[in-house]
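Margin note from the TA: students keep mixing up input and output lines. Inputs are the sequences; the output is the structure of the whole complex. Example:
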Amino acid sequence: MICWMFPGQPIAFSGAPYDDIEFSEITRICQESTGCNPLESGTSASNFSHNVRLQLLGTCVSLYRSKQLTKQGVGPDLIAEHSMGIYPALAASGSIDSATALELTCRIGVAMAKMGMQREYALGCVIGISCAPLEAIAANNGVHIANYNTSQHFLLAGERKNIDAALAEAGASGAFSATVFPCDAPLHTPLIAEIAGDVEHIVAEYSFRDPQIPLIEHIDQTTLTAATIPSFLLDELCRPVYWDTTYRALRSRGVTLFQEVGAGKALSKFNRWIDSET
Amino acid sequence: MSDELIPKVKQMIIESLRIEGMSPDEIETDAPLFGEGLGLDSIDALQLVVAMEKEFGVVVPDAATGSTVFASARSMAAYIAENRK
């Protein structure tokens, strides 16, 4: 059984990821539907934050990769997603089209970017410490665990000064590495409630079809339907990503082959770690 | 002495990181493992830390030490030779 996994936002730009007509077509659709080509740095791009452009690039790459795999006759039996990977995952499942996936990525990204104009937020990647001590560190410093990726790989989110303090404490507590990344908004935390109304309004403007391929979400590992997708799109921004649990659930459903459909190989590496513990 | 460990280190890298279609000979002894070389990242680093401890009983305590140890297959072998019990 094959599962396509759609990863979240890439960490950085690394030039044009693909130099062919198909990728150019995806970026053209992106330009038309959002007003932004994530690979261009001209005037249109200056209207969007660095992170929104990265989010759009991630969706473009995922859409491209899924089209390439489909062309090769490799289709999934199940689809899974991580964080902002939900939008291309919805497209791959047949719930929405590519242009809508890009529009949603952009509009929700822009809503989050507005949060970053009020306060400075950051993400903290913590590796090599277990969940219980990190939860205590997060609570001590007023930040949240945004991603539970494996037993030893986590992402914190919150205000920049609090993230810096939490990372220092994690390092002192024996974490192997603790790295800060700037971000627009504290994604996957209750702090997103500040823009919940905006996100609800955006999502309400779209209609969603039932996925043609089962799409498993990363909070409770349920199969999304046309009826549950709108509330999930808000819920997922306010609650953590439980990738460890999601991967194990997919395994227990009988998945034997995982294909990462997007930029990078982070999810495959998390899966490798989880496998090494079982 | 640490040179003798280099083939074992390369094998450990391939196995622990599940690098498919690559033989130990294809990993250049002095090439950087992170960034430009094999393109490894911090997720891979922790996997290598665990593998080194399991296979050689050698601990890499933090990322700062890791950045020196994991510079290349040769530096990994040297660290193991210096620190294994």
